[in-house]
Predict the 3D structure of the following.
Amino acid sequence: MTDRPGFPPAADPDAPDPEATAPARRGRRWLRWAALGAAVLVLAAGGTAWWLYEQLDGNIKTDTDTARELARYESERPVAAVAGARNILVIGSDTRGGGNGEYGEDNGTQRSDTAILLHLAADRRSATAVSLPRDLMAEIPRCRKPDGAHSEAQFAPFNRAFEVAGTACTIRTVERLTGIRVDHHVIVDFTGFKKLVDAVDGVEVCLRSPIDDRKAHLRLPAGPQTLRGEKALGFVRARYSMGNGSDTDRMGRQQEFLGSLVKKMQSDGVLLNPVRLYPVLDAATSSLTTDAGLDTLRKLYDLVREVRGIPAGGVQFMTVPRRPYAYNSDRDELVEPDARRLFDALRNDRTVSVVKQIRTDDGGPAGGEESPGPSAGPGTPSTRPPRSPQPSAEPTYEGTTAEQDVCK
């Protein structure tokens, strides 16, 4: 049919219906916008993830000086006995520099407030953390100081190594003391500890008696409670107002606290939940100094993946067998051959078991301390005394596990 003048053009029967094609066009536009939006979200998520990764990665400080210094003494260091097993020295630094000035005057030195040798079994089915008393008498080798001078070899309290010559000297002292190769080291300061505890929303403890410690700025009632931030730090640092005032007693509380921390992270699924894991990693890395083997987020995350399958009962905390030093009861010495058996077991990746620490209502060890030998006063001898401690029949390793209920 032809078009007539004055009338609209005749409809082409083969042409598509405009009303029918309109929804299709709108659908195609919607798909294009959806695809564009998805692309933007993917790019934004990827950019955010990369930014978060870079921030966490940048938090970690690498300790290259220690590696260089240890390389000078490689020939005297012990070799790894079991492939796959790893030994990590965790040092709690009580330096007053940086953001830690509120805990005391910064005199330019650093001290090792806590030292823990963490052994990860080759099959990653167990982890054993051994606390080394800061006042444990040990053979400290001649070490290079930060200013380039050398300290003299000495028989002195263990934490003197860190105070005088830093991390490398501490590692060499630990290796001489234990015969165990230290594969990695981690240094954590006060601020990092508080952030980590807050990131998991506090850690539960159970007190048999109230605490009022002015030095630690800590006042707590008896009974179960959740500690965060300053109170958590005060609890693990408090010494003279709790128990028998010994560093060994304080280490027992630290071990129970760390066990409760590990249990909380495992039971709450923190290690398996990226959303909850991020603040924990941020807190853990913000005040962390490590060797090059652990100085990236990827390396730390790989370590977390290796250990997150360890059951709570397989995460153990103990103190090296010790007793009051015969010539100064304010110092400690190893109990042999118990200590040697423990070090041999860890070096050869053999299973070590612990028994629950038994404490009195005031927090001190039941039965009291072993009677100290004659005291030489506040000073410490410069050489090892000619004393051979009597060996015990069977070694007893007191400690706890992450599975243990803190209120039992």
